[in-house]
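Quick log. Single chain, no ligands specified.
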Amino acid sequence: MAKVQINRLMKQYGNAYAVNDVSLTIEHGEFVALVGPSGCGKTTTLNLVAGLLEQSSGDIRIGDRLVNDLDPKDRDIAMVFQNYALYPNKTVFQNVAFPLVMRKMPRADIERRVQEAARVLDITHLLERRPRDLSGGQQQRVALGRALVRNPSAFLMDEPLSNLDAKLRVQMRSELKRFHRDQGATVIYVTHDQLEAVTMADRMAVMEGGRLQQYDAPAQVFAAPANLFVASFVGSPAMNLLPAEVVSDATGVSLRGPDGWRLPLSPGNARRALRASTNQVVLGARHGTIRLQQQDGPGTVRGEVYTVEPTGDITYVHIALGDATLVVSVEPHVLLAPDDLVWLTFDQDKLHLFDRQTRQALPTA
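-> predicted structure:
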């Protein structure tokens, strides 16, 4: 496996940029997920690395080679697609062996590589079947086996689990994670499903509008989103984001909402808020960092229950705060009903603050 380096990659269509100045380094044996909403440029980036599209500018290196002008077959990569792309008239063995047959590899070597890939992916018992006789998960394993036999420098995977049902997706996430660990594979994985990225990737690249928004370990992206887009995209339920004005008076620094609610800030958060380019900021808080109480108290913000969503092991409560709505999680035994008055306490150590003008996170240091 090899390192993949993407430097200032651009793909332009007329005056529009599908990929705009993207730079990434995927280390040897690293699993990197490209994640973002539809149209953000993640699949275009993958296709540029694969050589299926020609870049407008920028460099792509796979291992020690500059591959800008190489055909896909010469880049030493293997792709796994969303639709599996299996040959319906060929057996599983023939599908897996196909890239080796095209290379005119000796029959004995083909047999050895196919059997080894089948063993790794637990599809040995399927080798004589045809794709129509396989489940979706089995077909995806065959597609992965066809990529594995090539022993490529890098695997490029384009939403390979999106056609599977929810149960199979969970199973295949586990299979892919184990495959990556056992093979030490360099993987670039495109998905719109942030859960796939968070559970499988060593690092995730969050994209929006053709630009790279943040590139870091999933835990760091979740804990410290770089800007408002990342904060709103990563996490389920999404981070609560409330516009507010920074207010200073004799009692200290606080945030005041457009509907009059007021939240006093700790000294550390006060310093952060005062670094904003204007007095307009956005308060961010994850659902698990807000506590509900049914009576007023110091530093609380009053809200009204809008709706309650029990999910079994956790209940999500939607709270109306003026014209805004935020989501808070509570234990299942907490009984609330629409229109109940509640008071919110925010964990100041886990509060996020964003500059409303620049949309960037305000640093903690």
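The first helix runs from residue 42 to 50.
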